[in-house]
Specification:
The chain is an alpha/beta fold. It has a single domain, classed as Rossmann fold (3-Layer(aba) Sandwich). Helix content is about 40%, strand content about 15%. It is built from 13 helices and nine strands. Strands 3-2-1-4-5-9-6 form a seven-stranded mixed sheet, sandwiched between helices. A two-stranded antiparallel sheet has the order 7-8. Strand 1, helix 5 and strand 2 form a beta-alpha-beta unit. Helix 3 crosses helix 5 and helix 5 packs parallel to helix 6. The two termini are about 35 Å apart. The relative contact order is 0.18. It binds S-adenosylmethionine. S-adenosylmethionine binds next to helix 1 and strand 2.
Length: about 325
């Protein structure tokens, strides 16, 4: 999720895991709690159909890089499942999900979705834990999936090493990390927020503060950390893997500061919204135009990364 905010915060000391938990809990309370409160099994089932339809429309990594029809019986770890829409979708295809989130309320909301799924989520569970210290033995999983999480942790390199460690040899990592070589970073963020609004001066976390808030309520807790990566940076992070592929995606005119708001009104009128967004963003997703879909492939803010743990070599 990439939502612009222009809230100002005083420069903070080095963040710690407690700050990260506080931020994601605040966002959860503001964005998902209402959706989760009234959730029934039928609504969840309908929501998952809509979610898959939305992801297919967007050619999202959860339906392209993830082998949905081959998930039955696979041991899949999702790191940072948020409210759990992705994990529930994979469980619906028979994956044996382990869903680990740093924020307790988020792990609990995933667990509740598995509960609602009953026998359809057999062998699935959610827990609180840290991507940088995964509480699993080497080689535990066939697939590790993580969408928009590892660029928000203190040591992304360590988290990627953990992904590799817990994968079985030949296992697959499917990871989304933010892309530096993108319109959103250089124009919306660096030029407008960083330089013209002067937020980049003297604050190493200016990017964190300018990204992520999408809550219904005014933001009161700053996002402690957001990083983004060039193609070379991704290649470095995944140096211990084999078969690395990455592609760009996700471009939205509505994220252009100020002007974007006007565009969003037009966009919703012209292209409508998709209910598939409710489970993962707490609200319908504003459908992008064909031009935005194309721009996403050229200068989008997300890297969809796929890589495998080599067979043989160090664990
Ligand atoms: C942007 S949300 C992504 C949620 C979900 N993957 C999605 O795409 O809807 C980031 C999530 O990562 C979690 N998170 C942040 N740092 C983490 C860490 N070190 N270990 C595990 N989870 C973490 C947060 O609690 C939050 O739920």
């Amino acid at each position: 999720m990439t939502l612009d905010t222009t809230t100002r915060h005083a420069p903070a000391a080095e963040p710690d895991k407690g700050d990260i938990q506080k931020f994601w809990k605040a966002l959860y309370d503001s964005l998902y709690e209402d959706v989760d409160r009234g959730l029934t099994r039928d609504a969840l089932w309908r929501g998952l159909e809509q979610l898959e339809d939305m992801f297919r429309f967007r050619d999202h990594m959860s339906v392209r890089e993830m082998p949905l029809h081959d998930l039955a019986g696979k041991r899949v770890l999702e790191i940072g499942p948020g409210a759990g829409g992705h994990s529930a979708l994979f469980a619906r295809y028979g994956a044996r999900m382990t869903s680990l989130d740093l924020t307790f309320d988020r792990a609990r909301s995933v667990a509740r979705k598995f509960d609602l799924m009953g026998a359809d989520a057999t062998g699935c569970h959610a827990l609180q834990g840290d991507a940088e210290n995964l509480p699993f033995a080497d080689g535990t999983f066939d697939i590790v999936y993580s969408n928009g999480v590892l660029h928000h942790t203190l040591d992304t390199g360590r988290a990627v090493d953990e992904v590799r460690r817990v994968l079985a040899p030949g296992g697959r990592a499917v990871i989304m990390l933010y892309c530096k070589s993108s319109w959103h970073y250089w124009i919306n963020m660096f030029l407008v927020v960083g330089l013209l609004k002067g937020r980049a001066f003297g604050d190493p976390n200016w990017l964190g503060k300018a990204t992520e808030w999408g809550g219904r309520h005014a933001q009161s807790v700053a996002n402690p950390i957001t990083r983004c990566y060039t193609r070379r940076g991704i290649a470095r992070l995944f140096g211990g893997f084999t078969g690395l592929t990455m592609r760009k995606a996700e471009f939205y005119f509505y994220l252009i500061p100020k002007l974007g708001r006007l565009y969003r009104r037009f966009q919703v009128k012209r292209y409508g919204t998709h209910p598939g967004g409710i489970l993962v963003y707490g609200e319908p997703w504003p459908i992008w135009s064909p031009l935005e879909a194309w721009l996403g492939r050229v200068m989008g803010f997300c890297w969809y990364i796929k890589a495998e743990k080599p067979v043989g070599g160090t664990p």
